[in-house]
# Entry
Amino acid sequence: MKAIRKSDGKVIEVREWRDTSDVVYSDPDMNRFYQASELDFNVEMTFDGWVARDKNGLIYAYTRKPTRLSNFWLDLSGGCLSMPTIPPFSSLTWESDPIEVSITIKPKAR
# Structure
């Protein structure tokens, strides 16, 4: 997961480690450990993927370009994320090819 290191504002990748009394985070190589208080997890994330509309009208996002089956699209490498049927996807149809997208996810302001 991504976090902002409070000491310098740098966005870093960390892994969560739990023991009986505390949660700590490390960099992927486990060379450095952080307490939760040293990190800010309100990080905007962007991933590239594909969006397609199933025959029933529902829209899904995929990490890899999906394959059309009889009534739906399938990405054999993993799951999918249900998307709202709003612009810019209103013109996407079952007959359309999947479209390549960048999707940004960010926490809501509190």
